[in-house]
Amino acid sequence: MRQRRERWGAIALETQNIVLGDGKYVEERFAPSLSHPMTQLSDAQGPPPAVVPIVHDIASSIVLSQQRTVLYPHYCPRLGPWKDARPSSPFLSTRVDFSRKSTLNVARQLALSYSSDLLQSSQIGLLSSASDKRNSSYLIGSSEQEDVIKRSSSLVANLTGPVGQAFYDVHRSFRKEDRSGLHDHAMLYSPGVVVFRKDCDDDTLSESDPSSPSRKERDLVGGDFIPPYIVNVVSAVPVNAAMVRSNHRIEPGEESFFEDGIRASMKERMARVLRAFELNGDKVLVLGAFGCSFENQVETVASIWAELLDCGETVGDARQVARFKYSFEKVVFAVPGKLYEPFKKAYEMRILEEQLTSATLEN
């Protein structure tokens, strides 16, 4: 594991140099493809004849993405009234899928399926579980979701730009006033983030040599250069439930009060995330077990997503339709590892629970 983290750190440093440098990288393909809009054959010599080096220049895409980055503050008139807003072009219903793959593996599959021009436009939205502090943990091999995205894409340019700095400034100011761990609702929308590396266990057909003896090792680490594609990223900071619980003396019988507070803050933030995607016209989303690495209960997170996207909720005797049920064409929950089963089960159980409640009220 230590060697893997060291390798991830080296990959992240190389990514940073590309993204904040000239925006060029060289992908090695087993067979050349000259149809990509930002691709050309490299003049460099050296690789074996079977491997063709392809130079990608993503500099202009990085600059454009950084310039179009938007900060949605805590008191935001565009996101705050999410309950009353309605989608401009509603779908018949949102299709919900679950995947054991990582966020970027799902995003790449969707990009290949939904986008004819991988660098010109994207309606794929991706939620990044962001840190409230500007940090360089991705450079030392962190495997947190945001750090994986940063070492595989141009997101670091958005986060280090002026709008990204304002995002961290807002959160720093909130931390000084409120040390509860609930964090600020401020979030960042980064359109057109360029992804140009494979994540671990990406089983998309590779154009690199499949017979390479190091192929299996590379698949465990990820990081291979790939043809670039773009996604639209919302960076939102989840509630740090572990900090909330540790910062307060919770007396017996008060547990539900604190858990309800955590849930209410998380639901408001998650709803604003969906509203940000909706406002910007994203049709296909990649979400996940948002905030579970900060000890938000997986059952809570899954049930909130279900209420917002699928089943709605019953308040008193009133049945409230899921606010975002008709806002998106498709949502994929990327939940790799041990959280997949409990997340999927909790999502489905919340829908069943609401159906039973609704049936009871009707009778």
TrEMBL record:
Residues 56-198 form the Microbial-type PARG catalytic domain. It comes from the Eukaryota. Pfam families: PARG_cat_microb. This is Microbial-type PARG catalytic domain-containing protein.
